[in-house]
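Here is the promised in-class demo. Please do not try to memorize the tokens; focus on the logic of going from shape to residues.
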């Protein structure tokens, strides 16, 4: 998405309590989202909605290095606000060379069902 000009990634999730397995994968998915922020020097925002299912809450905004900038709790609705300097992020992304070694010409294979034939 960064290659197409994205400056902010919204990462809506619905990570619930997973009662069927007794699992709590919240920390795993939080790290995944933070990793996306750091790998792309992007801001990540998450949100959770209302449901009969018990959702983990703890929505957060991660900064461009994957750091948690602001987080919500798990009991009450909350609005999270954070400010970032998009020009500074763009400069860092360019100066760190995060996109210079990407090979989009090789991406077509991962867009296929079998890894070989185009759709």
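The designed amino acids, position by position:
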């Amino acid at each position: 998405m960064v290659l197409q000009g994205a400056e902010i990634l919204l990462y809506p999730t619905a990570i619930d309590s997973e009662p069927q397995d007794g699992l709590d994968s919240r920390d795993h998915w939080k790290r995944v989202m933070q990793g996306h922020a750091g790998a792309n020097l992007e801001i990540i925002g998450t949100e959770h909605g209302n449901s009969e299912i018990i959702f983990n809450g703890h929505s957060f905004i991660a900064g461009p290095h994957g750091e948690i900038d602001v987080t919500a709790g798990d009991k009450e609705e909350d609005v999270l606000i954070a400010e970032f300097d998009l020009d500074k992020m763009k400069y860092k992304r360019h100066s760190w060379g995060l996109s210079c070694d990407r090979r989009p010409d090789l991406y077509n294979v991962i867009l296929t069902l079998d890894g070989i034939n185009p759709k």
